[in-house]
């Protein structure tokens, strides 16, 4: 194959959802795009695979809550196979005695159920929810676009607009907002609610995927940020065919406008000279040339491993090398002979997002265990039975159970070979406390430890967000101060993955904003 | 029936400072104190004959120079003594010592890392700059962002515009001191784990935070309030111990016509026409007044002690949810002779600033996790003051005192209380940790005592034994301290004010809360809005 055949306008490194989104937008803008991925399938962690013949599950991420309708429309995803199995998944805090709590999302009946657990919590819920929504809407505009060069003046968000929004909050809520931002979520929850179960579930919500516990400062902000990002989405749900269907639709969409996707193509080096990027080189030596390279691989790997620290000013290289990527999770996927029996479950609960987090202390303890590279005695987790709304994932009457277990150390004491069985047993034992017949129904299962997630999905240290989403690594500071505009000091090189604004969460927004930035920069030249 | 213009509940330093300012403004002031001494938790006691242990809490602090001047504390007999920078002893016997002299400090750091020695001046400069910024906020009531006036909106808008125009690099440079963890911030200057541990240890004492928790970086600057000549920050303590500060302030109260009554416990507040109108003592005596100023912590003031009626909805709950943590235990050892620390030089002036033992930052992080899990610490952080090094009169000839703040001791344990067995185990843990570095330590012990946070709560009256009367986390400082909407010192009860460290600025400056509360009262009386 001659060199000309490998000349493109844009190279996208990584066929995860963000890379594919970037590819889709760039191709639609008339660019000749190639997407290169080391894996044998597209999607990164948004992939569907078999646990066992005829049993399929989203191997990694299993829910979508932040995907904007705009991206779906722009990239014509429904035409390319994206059909939602549901966009209405409720979150359920599981109770061992069967008295589960559906986290009310504005529904009166759910608030009444909450009140049956605790009158006080039922009364406070509305105010809490309204407050969170107000606060999230202060934050949400900051996630709505590319971060311009200077300070906090995000697109469409002048300081005036933000101040006015804060003004509209009213004096009490404004003060509360300022208290909220640096606070630990446990203190906020303790102030608002008395029920352990409700607090445990919300605490899990705030901390899942992050390296923190409910008592860690900044977790109230994490919760807000998540809610703010969700305001851009369309509800909580998953596609028919699992998350892989999203990735396939993104891939199909990009290919339909001429983008090429090459799998089994690990990029080893980004080639640059004289401050300009010129292409990439694969592991097998194949050279691809392009004036624009968009990397959806995490910024640290992109800059230090693929490009080389020498291309950056010392202070920038130092900052990027220091990006914190702690916090990993494990995945347990089970093929089941039938629905496990959860007491008092109706349709809604079986189709819901099931949270095991009996109280805040258990969530905190799982974080403490992770810090010690240990397995939690009582793991907390988030589960989905996607076959409930998408029966084709399993044979008739059978099901698949998808379990995300946060706060699982990358380097567990003793090593994963030694501990994986113990871990799976603990997870199953824990779920069995809520569904005692679970074990009887298990036909097959798989576990993905953080190192395996890293290996399989190309996610460094198994980190979901390509960089902790803490104050100093968000907004204008993500992935580094002054580099939040997707462009890098190396001309033509862009970040387009979760390691850039607005961070992780299967929104596709980093991919979209990066494409916008790259096209705008080109136009300006 | 007795009457005073103002009654101050509690003769702690803040209460006395408030009393002194009020008396100076011409009010007749009565301070009522439950115990037989001033200083609250800051009272000196005898542990064994001839041994006078320092009070619980910190052995050093920052007294704003404005207050020193206002009350002429120097002439009243207060001498603030500057201490050297303290020593951190690591598990392997190596140590880091702090020196106020910048050149000696850099030489000491160079023993551990040349790069760290070179980084020191920049660190010291950044800390000093932050400390100066903090100082500007200490002696005024924090402004409340919830006010509705056009003036304040315009101020907020211009402030927002200012922030929005800052370059991200510059914004990061400023904000990192508030957002990063202690460990990460220190890591931006220093590579040596020993140096980082040395700087982290004193910042963590009394704090319910681990070295890896976000916002922990903000714990550093307060240590620099007393200033520095470029080396380690000065630690200032009153000659004669912290109690001396309270004694001097008590003298000033009396000199200004105020009265201090001991063994006078306030058991209730009498309300007349929905206003606080009198205090009722344990013996039934009533003292009429038009102003009650409480030096008790916010929970004691509003929840546990008095039978309030008419607290606004939600206020009681807000108070109940103020984060107050039991985290420090106190161990005191009366010693015969000074134990030998073979790994330390024979003469180490830095020891007058204290001795920290507790491993490195990873150990501190684990100790924090244990505390979070409500477990008795297996390897807590020891913040050891040896006051006899500078003031031999605190012990008999040749004797010494180790006054230890044991950091990360839970108020209650996950499976029970601090039983005698558990207390002994903790005491032994402390002894073992010291003996590791001073092998004959136990043979020097004449007398010993342990106070877990619950004991401190009982003795000093600090809810949960929280040394700051409310954690000084960012969500509980400034206009949110002690609770939002309380406007720092006023309370929902007319004529009842709070002047303790539960209010702004917490434990950052000695006497400041009391001074500010009094000022707000005086301004209010004069009809001026603060």
Essential attributes:
heterodimer, A: alpha/beta, 7-stranded mixed sheet, 5-stranded parallel sheet, 18 helices, 19 strands, 37% helix, globular, B: 530 residues, 17% strand
Helix/strand class of chain A: alpha/beta
Strand order of the largest sheet of chain B: 8-7-16-17-18-15-19
Strand count, sense and barrel status of the largest sheet of chain A are: 7 strands, mixed
State which percent range the strand residues of chain A make up. Answer: 15-25%
| Sequence stretches where pLDDT stays below 50 over 5 or more residues of chain B | none
Helix content of chain A: 25-40%
Shape designation of chain B: globular
* Strand-pairing-aware structural class of chain B: alpha/beta
The helix content of chain B is 25-40%
Number of helices of chain A: 18
Percent range for β-strand residues of chain B:
15-25%
Radius of gyration of chain B: 23 Å
Summarize the structure in words.
The complex is a heterodimer of chains A (525) and B (530). Chain A has 18 helices and 19 strands. With 525 residues, chain A is α/β, with parallel strands linked by helices. Chain A has a 7-stranded mixed sheet, with helices on both faces. In chain A, strands 9-2-1-13-19 form a 5-stranded parallel sheet, covered by helices on one side. About 2% of the residues of chain A have low confidence. In chain A, a hairpin with a 2-residue loop joins β3 and β4. Chain B has 530 residues and is α/β, with parallel strands linked by helices. Helix content of chain B is 33%, strand content 17%. In chain B, the strands form 5 sheets. Chain B has a 7-stranded mixed sheet, sandwiched between helices. In chain B, α1 links the parallel β2 and β3. In chain B, α1 runs parallel beside α9 and α1 runs parallel beside α15. Chain B is globular. Classes of the chains: A alpha/beta (525), B alpha/beta (530). Chains A and B meet through α5, α6, α7 and α14 of A and α5, α6 and α12 of B.
């Amino acid at each position: 194959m001659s060199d000309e055949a490998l000349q493109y306008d844009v190279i996208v490194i990584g066929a995860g959802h963000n890379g594919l989104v970037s590819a889709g937008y760039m191709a639609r803008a008339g660019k000749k795009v190639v997407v290169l991925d080391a894996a044998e399938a597209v999607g990164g962690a948004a992939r569907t695979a078999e646990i066992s013949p005829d049993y399929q599950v989203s191997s990694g991420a299993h829910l979508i809550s932040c995907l904007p309708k705009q991206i779906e429309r722009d990239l014509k995803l429904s035409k390319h196979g994206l059909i939602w199995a549901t966009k209405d998944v409720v979150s359920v805090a599981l109770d061992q005695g069967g008295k589960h709590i559906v986290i009310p999302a504005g529904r009166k009946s759910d608030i009444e159920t909450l009140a049956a657990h605790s009158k006080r919590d039922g009364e406070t819920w509305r105010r809490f929810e309204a407050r969170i929504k107000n606060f999230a809407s202060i934050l949400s505009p900051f996630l709505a676009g590319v971060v311009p060069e200077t300070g906090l003046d995000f697109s469409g968000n002048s300081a005036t607009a933000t101040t006015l929004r804060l003004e509209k909050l009213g004096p009490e809520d404004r003060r509360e907002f300022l208290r909220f931002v640096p606070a630990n979520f446990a203190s906020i929850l303790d102030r608002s609610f008395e029920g352990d179960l409700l607090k445990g579930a919300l605490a899990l919500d705030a901390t899942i995927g992050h390296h923190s516990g409910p008592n860690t400062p900044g977790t109230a902000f994490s919760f807000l940020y998540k809610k703010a990002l969700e305001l851009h989405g369309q509800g909580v749900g998953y596609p028919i065919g699992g998350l892989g269907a999203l990735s396939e639709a993104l891939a199909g969409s990009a290919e339909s406008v001429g983008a090429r996707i090459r799998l089994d193509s690990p990029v080893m080096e980004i080639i640059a000279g004289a401050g300009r990027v010129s292409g990439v080189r694969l592991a097998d030596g194949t050279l691809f040339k392009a004036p624009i390279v968009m990397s959806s691989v995490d910024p640290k790997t992109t800059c230090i491993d693929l490009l080389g620290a020498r291309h950056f000013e010392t202070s920038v290289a130092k900052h990027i090398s220091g990006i914190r990527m702690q916090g990993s999770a494990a995945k347990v996927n089970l093929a089941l002979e039938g629905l496990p029996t959860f007491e008092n479950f109706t349709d809604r609960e079986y189709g819901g997002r099931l949270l095991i987090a009996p109280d805040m202390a258990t969530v905190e303890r799982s974080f403490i265990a992770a810090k010690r590279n240990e397995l939690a005695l009582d793991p907390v987790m988030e589960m989905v039975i996607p076959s409930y709304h998408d029966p084709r994932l399993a044979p008739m009457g059978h099901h698949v159970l998808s379990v995300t277990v946060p706060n699982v150390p990358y380097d567990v004491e003793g090593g994963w070979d030694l501990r994986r069985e113990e871990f799976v047993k603990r997870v199953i034992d824990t779920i069995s406390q809520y569904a005692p017949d679970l074990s009887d129904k298990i036909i097959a299962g798989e576990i993905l430890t953080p190192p395996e997630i890293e290996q399989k999905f190309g996610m460094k240290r198994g980190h979901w967000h390509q960089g902790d989403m803490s104050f100093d690594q968000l907004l204008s500071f993500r992935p580094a101060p002054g580099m939040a505009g997707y462009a890098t000091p190396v001309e033509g090189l862009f970040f387009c993955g979760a390691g850039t604004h607005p961070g992780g969460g299967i929104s596709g927004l980093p991919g979209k904003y990066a494409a916008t930035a790259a096209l705008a920069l080109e136009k300006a030249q | 029936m007795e009457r005073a213009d103002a009654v101050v509940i509690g003769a702690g330093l803040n209460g006395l400072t408030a009393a002194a300012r009020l008396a100076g403004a011409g009010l007749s002031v009565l301070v009522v104190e439950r115990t037989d001494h001033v200083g609250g938790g800051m009272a000196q006691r005898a542990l064994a004959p001839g041994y006078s242990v320092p009070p619980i809490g910190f052995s050093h602090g920052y007294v704003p120079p404005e207050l020193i001047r206002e009350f002429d504390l120097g002439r009243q007999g207060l001498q603030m003594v500057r201490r050297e920078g303290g020593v951190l002893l690591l598990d392997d016997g190596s140590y880091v010592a702090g020196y106020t002299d910048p050149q000696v400090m850099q030489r000491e750091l160079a023993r551990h890392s040349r790069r760290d020695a070179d980084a020191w001046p920049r660190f010291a400069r950044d800390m000093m700059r932050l400390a100066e910024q903090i100082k500007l906020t200490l002696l005024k009531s924090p402004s409340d962002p919830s006010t509705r006036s056009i003036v304040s909106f315009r101020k907020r808008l211009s402030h927002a515009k200012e922030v929005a125009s800052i370059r991200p690099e510059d914004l990061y440079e400023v904000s990192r001191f508030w957002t990063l963890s202690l460990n990460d911030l220190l890591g931006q200057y220093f590579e040596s784990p020993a140096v980082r541990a040395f700087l982290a240890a004193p910042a963590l004492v009394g704090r319910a935070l681990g070295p890896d928790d976000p916002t922990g970086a903000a714990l550093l600057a307060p240590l620099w309030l007393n200033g520095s000549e470029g080396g380690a920050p000065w630690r200032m303590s009153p000659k004669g111990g912290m109690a001396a500060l309270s004694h001097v302030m008590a003298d000033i109260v009396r000199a200004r016509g105020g009265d201090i009554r001991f063994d006078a416990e306030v058991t209730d507040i009498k309300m007349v026409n929905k206003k606080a109108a009198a205090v009722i003592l344990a013996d039934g005596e009533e003292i009429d007044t038009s102003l009650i100023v409480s030096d008790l912590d916010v929970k004691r003031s509003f929840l546990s002690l008095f039978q309030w009626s008419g607290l606004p909805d939600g206020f009681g709950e807000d108070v109940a949810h103020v984060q107050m943590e039991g985290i420090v235990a106190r161990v005191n050892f009366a010693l015969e002779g000074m134990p030998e620390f073979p790994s330390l030089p024979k003469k180490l002036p830095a020891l007058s600033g204290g001795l920290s033992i507790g491993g490195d930052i990873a150990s501190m992080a684990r100790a924090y996790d244990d505390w979070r899990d409500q477990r008795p610490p297996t390897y807590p952080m020891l913040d050891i003051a040896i006051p006899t090094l500078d003031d031999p009169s605190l012990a008999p000839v040749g004797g010494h005192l180790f006054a230890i703040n044991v950091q990360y001791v839970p108020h209650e344990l996950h499976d029970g209380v601090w039983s005698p067995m558990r207390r002994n185990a903790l005491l032994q843990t402390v002894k073992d940790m010291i003996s590791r570095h001073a092998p004959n330590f136990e043979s020097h012990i004449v007398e010993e005592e342990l106070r877990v946070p619950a004991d401190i709560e009982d003795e000093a009256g600090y809810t949960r034994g929280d040394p700051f009367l409310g954690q000084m986390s960012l969500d509980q400082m400034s206009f949110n301290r002690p609770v939002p909407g309380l406007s720092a010192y006023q309370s929902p009860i007319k004529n009842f004010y709070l002047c303790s460290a539960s209010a702004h600025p917490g434990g950052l400056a000695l006497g400041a809360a009391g001074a500010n509360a009094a000022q707000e009262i005086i301004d209010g009386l004069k009809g001026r809005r603060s």
